[in-house]
Amino acid sequence: MSDRDGGPTPAGDSGAPALSVEHLSKRFGDRVAFDDVSFEVGDGEVFGFLGPNGAGKTTMVRTLGTLLAPSAGAAFVGGIPLTPDNGVEIRRRIAVMPESPGLYLRLTVAENLECFADLYEVPDPTDRIGRALRAVNLADRAHDACGALSKGLRQRVALARALLSDPEVLFLDEPTAGLDPVATRDVHQLIAALSRSGVTIFLTTHRLEEAERLCDRVAILNTTLRTIGRPAQLREQLFAKTLTVRTLVALPDPGGVFAGLPAVDGWRQDGPATYVLAVSEQAVAAPGVTRALVAAGADVLSIGESHHSLEDVYLELIDQDQEAGQG
Amino acid sequence: MRVNSRRVRAIFRKELREYRHNGFIIWTMAIFPLIFLIQPLVVVFVLPASAAAQLSHEHLLLYMLGIPAIVPAAVAAYAVVGERQQGTLEPVLTTPIRRQEFLLGKALAALVPSVAVAYVVYAFFLACVELFTQPAVASALLGGPDLLAQLLFTPLLAGWSIWVGMAISARASDFRVAQQLSILASLPTAVVASLIAFNVIHPTFSLALGLAAALLLGDGLGWRIMSATFDRERLITSTR
Question: Residue A297 maps to which CATH number?
Answer without folding.
Answer: 3.30.70.100
